[in-house]
Write a structure and sequence with these properties.
mainly beta, Thrombin, subunit H, 8-stranded antiparallel beta sheet, elongated, 396 residues, disordered N terminus
Length: 396
């Protein structure tokens, strides 16, 4: 097996370039064979486009796109992605937190503003047995051959194959050479990515199922004196199996269904009383009814004030609802809202005095957050904070 050693991918700028993935093919195989191969792939509708000539990533669930960090960080506010011809807005972009460090994991997640119902997502490849496996790469960027390098003609979907030659020493990247026709490891439809489709997928087929095993990241041109797309270049894809936990944890943490899981636990709650003294109470928040409902039990011992709420997520409406009742006759109904890292429960209707109330959860951390009870009345433009509580998780 060929041995390629990767030291630091993104530092040798003269020889390592971040690519924009077209498909570069063998010079001795007709281009139409690669176009036909792409047409026959049953998963190309899950490849997400930035525009008509550039890719953004791959649909891995009905609302999440797996992308490259160097692509995701360039997406402008308000931009819409193209999925199977449909224009879809972006709710949130999550770039791996170590992207700016020396490790440089080139991976990111993009949450869409709505679910995609007419496209089957591509599952993650979770096994670490990629070496010597055949991968399929697809893209719509510039075209070229191993003899000519990049030529142009973007906008046409092509697909090619290659064999995984190895894994980087830190486990972050898969890599393979662009083999010439006389190399014993060349595939019938040998090819690589190139300028136009960074963040495109590398697919592995197992038991007739297509899995995403890599995300197009970079290309080494050490062997070709800095020329991209020639026989002998080495292509690097971010290794999906290395980041399965990070991907799954972030999807779960940022799903609407789990948006209030941070609230679960046994909490000490404290606030400043009317006489400027510190008041301390408690709130126990648990899941009930097959873990589908969140129940809180709030106690303010200084006033013998006790209250409970039931919060539930309705998957049909994709909406959170809460009902609150207390031992002093209080009763409220709320609708949940999610604003980035802030969570809100807001009254559905104004009360008899024309007032609207809401609670806001903000500055959310693993063991603490701030809760505010706010109100607004007819004739006023701004919400007024009536009660602010500091939540701190009790130590076991």
């Amino acid at each position: 097996m060929k041995q390629i050693f990767l030291s630091v991918i993104f530092l040798a700028y003269g020889f390592i370039s971040i690519i924009n993935n077209p498909i570069i093919i063998r010079h001795d195989v007709p281009e139409k064979a690669y176009i036909e191969f792409a047409r026959e792939l049953p998963v190309t509708d899950a490849i997400v486009m930035y525009n008509s000539t550039d890719l953004t990533g791959t649909l891995i669930s009905d609302q999440w796109v797996l992308s490259a960090a160097h692509v995701a960080e360039t997406i402008k506010d308000g931009h819409k992605l193209i999925i199977n011809g449909d224009s879809v807005g972006i709710e949130k972009i999550i770039i791996h937190p170590e992207w700016e460090s020396n490790n440089r994991p080139d991976i990111a997640l993009i949450k869409l503003k709505r679910k995609i119902e007419n496209v089957k997502p591509i599952p993650l490849y979770t096994l670490k047995d990629e070496i010597d496996k055949e991968v399929i790469v697809a893209g719509i960027g510039d075209f070229g051959t191993g003899k000519t390098g990049v030529e142009g003609k973007p906008g046409i979907m092509r697909a090619a194959t290659n064999l995984v030659d190895g894994v980087s020493s830190d486990g972050q990247y898969l890599f393979w050479l662009f083999d010439s026709p006389d190399n014993e490891r060349v595939t019938d439809l040998e090819g690589i990515s190139g300028p136009g489709d960074s963040s495109g997928p590398a697919l592995i087929v197992k038991n007739n199922t297509y899995y995403i095993a890599g995300v197009s990241s970079a290309q080494s041109t050490r062997a070709t004196n800095g020329v991209e797309g020639m026989y002998g270049v080495t292509e690097y894809f971010t290794r999906v199996s290395q980041y399965v936990n990070w991907i799954q944890e972030n999807i779960q943490k940022n799903s609407h269904e789990n948006a209030f899981d941070f609230w679960l636990g046994d909490w000490e709650v404290s606030w400043t009383g009317p006489d400027s003294t510190r008041v301390v109470g408690s709130n126990m928040v648990t899941k009930i009814l097959d873990d589908k409902v969140i129940q809180e039990n709030f106690i303010d011992p200084t006033r013998n004030f006790k209250g409970t709420s039931i919060s539930v997520f309705n998957p049909q409406t994709e909406q959170w609802y809460q009902t609150w009742a207390d031992n002093q006759g209080g009763y409220y109904n709320f609708i949940g809202k999610i604003d980035d890292n802030t969570r809100i429960f807001e009254m559905k209707e104004k009360d008899a005095r024309g007032a609207l109330y809401r609670m806001i959860f903000l500055d959310i951390k693993q063991n603490s957050f701030i809760w505010k009870w706010q109100g607004i009345r007819d004739g006023f433009d701004d919400w007024k904070t009536v009660w602010e509580i500091q939540y701190n998780r009790k130590k076991e």
